[in-house]
Amino acid sequence: MENIDFNLLSPLILLAVAPVATLMVIAIYRNHTVTFCLAVILLVLFLIDCFRLWSLSFDNQMVDDLLMIDKFGLFFMILIAIGGILILFISYSYLNNNVKVAEEFYVLFLTALVGAVVLVSSIHFATLFLGLEILSISLYAMIAYTREWKNSIEGGLKYLILAAGSSAFLLFGMGLIYLQTGALDFEAIGSSLEKVNLISTAGLAMMLVGIGFKLGLVPFHIWTPDIYQGAPAPVTALIASVSKGSMVVVLVRFLHTTNSQQFAWIIWTFSAMAIASMLIGSLLALKQSNLKRLLAYSSIAHLGYLLVAIIAGSDFSVEAVTYYLVAYFISIIGAFGILSIFNSTGEIEQVSDLQGMFWTRPWLSVIFGVMFFSLVGIPLTAGFIGKFYVVMAAVNSGLWALAITLVVSSAIGLYYYLRVIKTMLTPVAKDAPKSALGQLSTMGLVVMSILGLLVIWFGVFPSQLIAVIRSIEVL
Amino acid sequence: MILVALISTLVLGGLLAMLLEKWVTGSAKWVGLVASLLTMSLAGSLWIQYTGIDASTVSNGVFMVFKKPWIPEFGIEFHLEVDGLGLVMVMLTGFLGLVAVLISWSQVKHKEGFYYLNLLWTLAGIMGVFLAFDLFLFYLFWEVMLVPMYFLISIWGSANRIYAAYKFFIYTQIGGLLMLVALLGLYFLNGSSTGVYSFNYWDLIKTVLTTEQSMWLMWGFLIAFLIKLPVLPLHNWLPDAHGEAPTAGSVILAGLLLKTGAYGILRFVVPFFPDASQSIAMPAMILGVCGILYGAKLAFAQTDMKRLVAYTSVSHMGFVIIGIFAFNQLAWQGVIMQLVAHGLSTGALFVLAGILYQRTGTRDIRKYGGLWATVPRMGVAGLILVLASLGLPGLANFVAEFMTLAGTFTTTPIIAIAAAIGLIAAAVYSLRIMQKVFYGQDTASEKISDLSSMETLTIATVVFLLIYLGLNPGPITRTVEPSIKQLISQVETPDKGGFSYRTQVNNKSSSNGKH
Fold first, then answer.
1. What are the chain B neighbours of A408 within 8 Å (beta carbons)?
2. Are A441 and A90 in contact (CB under 8 A)?
3. pLDDT tens digit string along A367-407?
4. Contact A462 B170 (CB under 8 A)
5. Same domain, B293 and B432
6. CB of A185 closer than 8 Å to CB of A124
7. How confident is the model over A317-337, as pLDDT tens digits?
8. Count of domains in chain B?
9. Which residues of B touch A410 (CB under 8 A)?
10. B189: domain range?
11. Could you count the other beta carbons within 10 Å of the beta carbon of residue A382?
12. A403–B162 CB contact, under 8 Å
């Protein structure tokens, strides 16, 4: 512990202090707007600190085998911070309309981010588990935050039980690996994993199950639609982006450091999961009339795409994952954001609620359309470059079957995304009851516009972002 | 710069139309008109420049290039080029774009701003497809032309528009994605062997492939293009999309979108995979013949005017596929003539069908009849277009089909003979249109109005072009000759015997043009 560079740890420390500070301010003066502003300010400080570190040229530094502060982790910290700030903005008006006591939401929100940030810099089972649990426990409460709604409570409870179950799997897997290798940090595990035997294989398999649950990959996807539907829309955005994203990052780091891809069976299992996720996710989305469930199934497919890039394992692989995650973060936060920024109680849930939106709220609909096009991967959106990157990684590694499955899944995906867009374009009948969409919050609209422009920007001029991503090395 | 202007005029015009319509109602169509006129004149000036230079002095037939790095990390450039083939397609796009705007003038009555945005962006995508020489950029434009087209069909189409729009989008998207995978395969194979990763057309064309590799990659490209063209088992989206689209949409679909498929095969599939494409020439040609006959048969059986015209497209595109896979210069020149002639004549037929639908409220040809008496101008226009479609000598379509068949005959006579039967079938279904619509007993109770002056002007221009090119195909055949020579040089001439015959005919056709 003697030679820890606190300079490098400062973002983590800052973010860990943030929820405590917020809690104390709430104790002194309970006010929604103040709490919101404080949370935003703290996150912005965190972001600035991350940028400061990014601009320093430093060696990748381990903190006592537990955490790794490197550009890879830092990149995702920045992404998480930006995503977090955007979701906060969406949450503000949403909470104003839907709950009576909103302040604690921000505390939970910040602790969730602490968990995510620990996860993306974790190189040790202890921090992996710690980060994961901080994240998940915050999420249980956040999912059930709108406690007057039945769905919300149900979602929270389901997530609690299933996440606890999957954590148990993860923990058992870690235990078995520890039994075999006597190590808890990724690198030591990697060096002693070479001799394969039943125990380490079982350990890895158990861990796979746990990770599969967290990512919502088929066949561990069953919870996804219920949670997505039950959770308040901003929380769903958080689950879909930050929570799943940080899990992907730690998975990439784990596979990369331990070199687990040397085991053919892992590749095969991952391939099977990827194919199943892409196809089943897309197919099940076809019949959904609930937007949040639809996005849930589509996120299963998207995680399948990401898995394809992870399997590819080439130089492109990490780049592809990173770019895809950036694009996915923006698009999915945008899509869920739109569901929650209307100043009315409740949220848009059914696809049919959107009918005629294009003619009454053209700008918002255009943004929504852009988000959806990005999720399908239509050119000139960030999602397209992301998908392009993934296909590139797959083709480069000769994973033809996965590339073709991706194509098929995208084509199926088109159908349901188009259905939503078509609904927005269908004019409402004259005698129809007035649309459920209420007034619009200005803040929400501004945030959405920024997201929409970002999607286009990263779709048309991806060069800078790619250059940044290329400069990152995973260690 | 002129190449960028061709695309950006349409893109900006579309945006302007959308924005201006919000402030000044009714301004969108004027913006559309100005943008398409500007594009047309840009294309025209390109044409004039091209005729001014000596084609033999430029390498590869390319006479104008625009290149800017775009995503250097992947070797992607914003790379536009135009050669003779591209130029002809650009001219066609400019002209039919103008027709599409003019025909929408009185037919589109709601949400005009968004309508012209989509119309002009579709055209921009098509223009980009014909100009892009970076394969990533090509793919991008290929996709970009779909989305606005989807909106055109699904918002301004007729009763069954939603279904048609889905079908159109999903068919073409699957093809597009397969192309993307094949494209990346080519990119990496080329990159790993040369060390330079690039999407540049001229780099990728040099890729050395094993037989197996080129077979697989070719299918990736080919399926995308065959869906667009369309070729027999993949044609299913076409009648729905053409039938349900608004008039301008049908014009663009039939006149331009289908052509991108043929263009893609000529420009990419054959030069990239010469051996693989030769090895599938026979099955492809047989599919082409089947398409000709099957399309003709179904066209004859249709009662819906627009679907009927749509099926004639299936039939006509059969000639294109045969001509392409005959691999000789004469046939290829015929193919390009066919692209132009079919674009013009079918485009105009859709215009006519759209006008009839607008006036009578039905597309069922059994409900028409005896219209010649009430609308003689429409009748004359219809007659000429139908005659063009059946391949009457003196009109451009005849030249196209003749050249295609003559070229095909030198390599595979049996296919040419079988395809020629299609000409008879064409006469049957074409004349049926005339009979059902314009002759016979007039059953309608209400009299409909004849072509307005703008409509007359539009169709008369098309008719003029069809006759002019029918009598003097030189401008087209001469323009595309250098690029065709370049493209076909990738393929070894399978039949040396026919060569002297072909050069003779070409000399004749080009000397004809000089008079």
1. 174
2. no
3. 988 999 999 888 889 999 999 999 889 988 888 899 989 98
4. no
5. yes
6. yes
7. 888 999 999 999 999 999 888
8. 2
9. 173, 177
10. 1-277
11. 28
12. no
